[in-house]
Design a protein that fits this description.
The complex is a heterodimer of chains A (about 180) and B (about 750). Chain A is an all-alpha fold and about 180 residues long. Chain A has nine helices and no strands. In chain B, a hairpin with a 2-residue loop joins strand 14 and strand 15. Classes of the chains: A mainly alpha (about 180), B alpha+beta (about 750).
């Protein structure tokens, strides 16, 4: 339950509060705390819990409740939360869900394609090698790609795959295929 | 006295009404003492309408004028698969109404689906009023979680037609979880496996004392217990053809008998290992000798018949668990909902899938109505109920289906993803596809496909008056909002001019606004005659059916009788032969089981109310049967003991309530906005194009061609000449898709 006066005050503030402030959470709070904070906010601010409010106060409450859902939906998801954390340090408080997802996807794509021109180039070469079945060359190119992007999770995974494939491959089959096959 | 609000589980096969008062949640039984009432509506020749088990008996006697499982058709377009199927198997005539809606023809009258469901709701309302001894005007009605917004709107309309203020439409599995956890202070993760007569839902919830959070919900609105019956019918009919060469499917009366027998067998198999099916005299051979359907159906036979349908539910469960980010062993409980879950076949599979015994302390037929009642009490402010629940119970529900906007190329872009908590508001930006475009059509879809046509079209409206500019230069923000009551509204806004068009969508419930008004005016639900007589007299209420009436009981389920609560639909052999229509209903003397001290309000309405002239918009060929004089000698009326004065008051008060409610029905449509039901389904003409709010992002990630030499990645086309949809964010996705294919080839 919340009083009409509190609702009005909070509704004015809602655009300035970031999701952590809205849910009364510490920025580094663990995932489990996010849910508890959402429940606590719902107990206080859910429209069903505040049937005494009507008219403009009700609209204001609805606006707050919608933002709480959004905050929860972003912070509960590790990928979205990471994207939001990067943005919130720049001062912007809101991140629509589609944008949060797009940013998370971009991160995944970067990990997949590479973030730097050289990283992408060697990663591309490595995959072309794999297409031809040239494991030895693929391993060399993956190694090069990783020197440009040592933190890229996608590269690391691919390099590991190539390394394993190389180790398990029968001798004589790891180089370039014979011409004219 | 506190306002009373009931919870109604409007089921495909059966309905149930319940009330929560204080700490007590009670199911309200009907006059016959049954706690669930068949959702079957029977239309009699004299204009009287009956709902419930009596009506179910009528399915066999008069299949052309009896409607079962209306819920499978409500809110669906006439071209949908479900309607096509119903056309093939139902004896009554299914016609097309305006806006691809569905109409059912009964004799010479047309009925919309919301009206049919309203008759069931009216019956449940009357049952509650008779038991509570006071008028009931408010209700929470449950719907399958996977119902789309057209189906929800149609259900809401049904409530209004029945004279109920629908406080909220509550998802059935959510209601079940609420009833399960109410007042217990649990901290659990539970799955609700809801296998109903016509729909399957699975919801995963987290209960945190007073908070009921839906983590994910998935479902299949084309799968239910009815499908089990269909398989059994097919088996019996096929075997009959093989043996006697007669196709029972072509005889609607035989088909209805098969349906009843199949359902009875299903119920028997819930408690027995085999069911004996015997339908004497179902057809005649060439010499005119009677033929009998006789078969023993074992559990093993049954499993072979329907096993694949049961397994289909677990694919949906997989999806729900994955959406919730859980695995089966994370769950603390599994709640079963729906009559078919009594089948050992389903119980065993559920047990194996979830690796635990499902809960047996909740009644699968009643738990949904009880949850609805608890929520209804909370919404009208029953403080005691709140305290019983430990200071109120909050439902944190989700949208079960994604909401989308139609864009160029026949695609639909998601604006609110499924399983997003409500209330919620989300915006996305779109642009024009043509130079100097003057208007765009905002089409709102619901579903999980990126292809527009594979989703349900909820509505559309035109947006114009924005800046005229070269294509791609206009930025239109489209905002979807779902409020706490689950109402969707859509707003389109031109960023530059600030021009706004918004609408609360008028969903294609199958009724236009004007039609709803005329239905309310005609008040044909007033014809529903609720039994308030003693049990003994109900048997006499079987109306003289045109053809089959004098026959003996059409089939006899010889096996052990099904469980008491689920009374078999077997039509009782009329103890007293169908009475000759007696003239006037008997006055007060008829016994009435009014458990509450207060006098029951008019539980039986009579054709009197329906005598109002039908409003013009309802296409009705002719209505000789419609206007019935007050003293219509309905054979059933003898058993119902209505008081004429009550009847009239009842009817008129309904109308008054509905006029008050009428406000809710009106769309707020400022300026040029008009929401209309789908006439043109294919996406064409002026369209929106996804762009720009994600542009910066997309550019950052746009792949430079030089980087990709040697990787066949830009086969999608020259980026300098984008197709309509090749804006930044789009191409981002397209490359992603392309690459994932590439990736798979690698391995």
């Amino acid at each position: 339950m919340i009083s009409a006066a509190e609702v009005r005050t909070l509704a004015k503030l809602v655009d300035e509060l970031n999701y952590y402030q809205l849910l009364e959470l510490a920025p580094g709070a663990p995932a489990s705390a996010v849910k508890q904070a959402y429940y606590a906010a719902s107990r206080k601010l859910h429209p069903d819990a505040n049937r005494h409010l009507a008219g403009e106060d009700r609209d204001a409450l609805d606006r707050i409740a919608k933002r709480i859902s959004e905050a929860y939906q972003v912070l509960r998801d590790q990928r979205r939360r990471q994207a939001y954390d990067e943005q919130v340090s720049g001062g912007s408080t809101r991140m629509p869900l589609a944008e949060a997802d797009a940013r998370a996807d971009k991160q995944a794509l970067d990990d997949y394609l590479g973030k730097t021109p050289n990283g992408r180039r060697f990663f591309g070469l490595a995959r072309a090698d794999l297409d031809r079945g040239d494991l030895a060359s693929a391993a060399r190119n993956m190694k090069m790609a990783l020197t440009f992007e040592p933190t890229n999770e996608g590269f690391k995974k691919k390099a590991e795959e190539v390394r394993l494939a190389l180790r398990n491959a029968p001798p004589g089959t790891v180089g370039p295929p014979p011409i004219g096959r | 006295m506190a306002e009373l609000a009931v919870g109604i589980d409007l089921g495909t096969s059966n309905s149930c009404v319940s009330i929560a008062r204080g700490r007590k949640v009670d199911v309200l039984p009907n006059a016959a003492g049954e706690r669930i009432t068949a959702s079957v509506v029977a239309f009699h020749e004299d204009g009287a309408v009956q709902v419930g088990n009596v009506a179910r008996a009528n399915l066999i006697l008069d299949p052309h004028n009896s409607i079962a499982s209306a819920k499978r058709l409500i809110g669906r377009y006439s071209f949908s698969e479900e309607v096509k199927k119903a056309r093939a198997i139902c004896a009554y005539k299914i016609l097309d109404g305006p806006g691809h809606s569905v109409r059912i023809q009964i004799r010479d009258e047309l009925y919309s689906l919301p009206e049919i469901s309203a008759m069931v709701l009216k019956e449940m309302k009357s049952i509650a009023e008779a038991r509570l001894g006071q008028p009931v005007t408010k209700a929470v009605i449950t719907v399958p979680a996977y119902f789309n917004d057209n189906q929800r709107q149609a259900t809401k309309d049904a409530g209004k037609i029945a004279g109920l203020e629908v406080l909220r439409l509550l998802n059935e599995p959510t209601a079940a979880a609420l009833a399960y956890g109410f007042g217990k202070g649990l901290t659990q993760k539970v799955a609700v496996y809801d296998f109903g007569g016509g729909t399957f839902d699975i919801s995963i919830l987290e209960i945190g004392k007073d908070v009921f959070e839906v983590l994910a919900t998935c479902g299949d609105t084309y799968l239910g217990g009815d499908d089990f019956d269909d398989r059994v019918i097919d088996l019996l009919a096929d075997e009959f053809v093989a043996r006697h060469g007669t196709n029972l499917r072509s005889d609607v009366y035989a088909l209805e008998k098969l349906k009843a027998a199949a359902e009875a067998a299903k119920r028997t198999l819930s408690v027995e290992s085999q069911a004996e099916i015997c339908i004497p005299d179902i057809a005649k051979d060439a010499q005119g000798n009677p033929l009998t359907v006789e078969r023993i159906l074992t559990s093993a036979d049954f499993e072979q018949l329907v096993g694949d349908l049961v397994l289909r539910t677990f694919k949906v469960c997989d999806e729900a668990l994955q959406q919730a980010g859980l695995v089966a062993r994370d769950l603390d409980g599994v709640i079963l909902v729906g009559g078919p879950t009594r089948l050992p076949l389903i119980r065993n599979h559920v047990k194996a899938y979830f690796q635990q015994e499902p809960r047996t302390d909740v009644d699968p037929d009643e738990v949904v109505a009880m949850g609805a009642a608890i929520h209804a009490a909370a919404l009208v402010g029953d403080v005691v109920t709140e305290e019983a629940a430990g200071g109120g119970a909050f439902l944190l529900d989700v949208t079960s289906l994604s909401l989308r906007i139609g864009v160029a190329g026949g695609l639909a872009e998601s604006v609110i993803e499924r399983n997003t908590p409500v209330p919620i508001e989300q915006s996305r930006s779109f642009t024009t596809t043509q130079d100097n475009q003057e208007r765009v059509q905002i089409r709102v879809y619901q579903g999980e496909s990126r292809r527009a046509e594979e989703n349900e079209l909820l509505g559309q409206f035109d947006f114009s008056g924005f800046k005229r500019a070269p294509r791609g230069q206009v930025r239109i923000d489209v905002t979807f909002e779902i409020n706490a009551d689950g109402i969707l509204s859509v707003q389109a806004k031109d960023q530059e001019t600030g021009k706004v068009a918004s609408t609360t969508l008028t969903f294609s419930s199958g009724l236009s606004g004007g039609e709803l008004d005329s239905i309310l005016e005609a008040n044909r639900t007033g014809r529903v005659q609720t039994e308030v007589a003693a049990d003994a007299e109900i048997e006499a209420a079987l109306p003289p059916a045109p053809k089959a009436a004098p026959k003996p009981a059409p089939f006899a389920a010889r096996a052990t009788p099904p469980p008491a609560k689920a009374a078999p639909p077997a039509p009782k052999q009329a103890a007293a032969p169908a009475r000759a229509p007696t003239a006037a209903p008997k006055p007060a003397a008829t016994p009435r089981p009014a458990p509450a001290a207060a006098p029951a309000p008019a539980a039986a309405a009579k054709p009197a109310v329906a005598a109002k002239p039908a409003a013009p918009p309802m296409p009705r060929p002719a209505a000789p049967a419609a206007p019935k004089p007050v003293a219509a000698p309905a054979p059933v009326a003898a058993a119902t003991a209505p008081e004429d004065v009550d009847v009239v008051e009842d009817g008129s008060s309904d109308l008054m309530d509905l006029e008050d409610l009428g406000l809710d029905l009106e769309t707020t449509q400022p300026s040029a906005v008009s929401a209309e039901p789908a006439e043109a389904l294919p996406v064409e003409g002026d369209e929106l194009d996804l762009v720009s709010d994600l542009d910066a992002l997309a550019e950052a990630s746009a792949v430079e061609e030089s980087d990709l030499e040697g990787i066949e990645i830009d086969a999608n086309g020259d980026p300098s000449q984008p197709t309509e949809l090749m804006t930044g964010a789009e191409s981002l996705f397209d490359h992603g898709a392309d690459l994932s294919r590439y990736h798979r080839d690698d391995e």
